[in-house]
Predict the structure.
Amino acid sequence: MTNFTYSKDLPDNLDLGKIVAVDCETMGLNPGRDRLCVVQLSSGDGHTHIVQIEKNQTKAHNLERLLQDENILKLFHFGRFDIAILYSTFGLLSSPVYCTKIASKIARTYTDRHGLKNLLTELLEIDISKQQQSSDWGAKTLTKAQIEYAASDVLHLHALREKLNEMLERENRADLANECFKFLPFRAALDIKGWNDIDIFEH
């Protein structure tokens, strides 16, 4: 496994295939307040590509092109947050998308444990550390521990999607999940525009 690190953007002509796992690290959990610091990606081949985003940066042409490419499926875990922070930073909505947290909530109704660590432990027998989750992602230089943590958030999403798809098909809930994935970018946009705590479907 190799973790490739870049400043500001992905390199030109990097081909990560038709399904790309994506995750973000930020200065906090409020996408309207806290800035995007790191975007990590993986094609599912055991390698990761980690991009440090500078403060006040609003453009990353190669990354933006990938996120908006309708022929590339973007895999997230809790995509609502990641899509929102990418929208807040670059002004784009990632599409099409797949969220393993949403898939889990629709398929695994026997539990309320839908965190990435829980899913990887149960479905793939993989244990990851979340120790660096609350570290300073805005630092100029990432530590080895931060890089390894960032990598762990995307390395296994392809395999996780396969397991969850099997469960969704078994329970006849795949169509429902797919419709949720289609709406997810717009749910993220609603969050950024001020409807984050409002149920628009409520009477």
In short: DSSP finds seven helices and six strands in the chain. The chain has one domain: 3-195.
